[in-house]
Amino acid sequence: MHAAAVLRLTGTERAVAEVAAVAEHTASLTAAASALGLPPDVPARAGADAPLVPLLDEHSAPDAATLLREIREWSAPALSLAYVPAFWRALAHQPRLLEATWRKDRLLLGAGALDEFTKLCAALAVAQFRQSSYWIPYMTQMLRSRGVNDRELVEIAGAVMHYVSFNTIAHAMRLESPVSGITAADVAPGGHLEHIVPGLRKRVAAGTQSSA
Q1: pLDDT tens digit sequence for 62-84
Q2: Using one digit for the tens of pLDDT, what is the confidence trace for 127-144?
Q3: Which domain holds residue 129?
Q4: Other CB atoms closer than 10 Å to residue 132's CB: what's the count?
Q5: 111 closest CA partner among 4, 200, 29, 211
Q6: 8, 24, 86, 135: which is deepest, by most CB within 10 A?
Q7: What is the pTM of this model?
């Protein structure tokens, strides 16, 4: 609730909804990767344990071949890979599930009220929180391909560590957030909380215009 309230300081409820959607999506991805026993393959690793289901490709999964080719083409610029990551190859056993999950992934992690980079940082944070051996290196690779360095990755991990601590304490003490009622209108021009973060709205607006 605290994080949602902070996000509302951007002045848009859509940004809150987008981060919630990214968090839900990444949580479901981590659960599926763990359920299928997928060892990390982004970036490529030698000597990894075998997954619990065979990994299909365009030849062994003809019903999913078109989509797998699409993912392969996407992987080159997005992940610096020449192959389809194991997660998508595992889902190819159920082509409709593969397509639904892939389309959702592209929709949720694409630019919206928030830019793609911000969403990837949120996705990595959720993967770190869920301690996913598959999705942490996957999301890290996506961010590295966009120029993120070691210091910035540690900064994300530090933020996760900090808020896991805060949330654990708040949950243990059954504390209610004092800012859970904040809405976008409250921090919009003329709102009764317009003054609480001087300059934030200008920075957000400038970032939105530059990404347009």
Answers
A1: 999 999 999 999 999 999 999 99
A2: 999 999 999 999 999 999
A3: 2-43+54-211
A4: 22
A5: 211
A6: 135
A7: 0.76
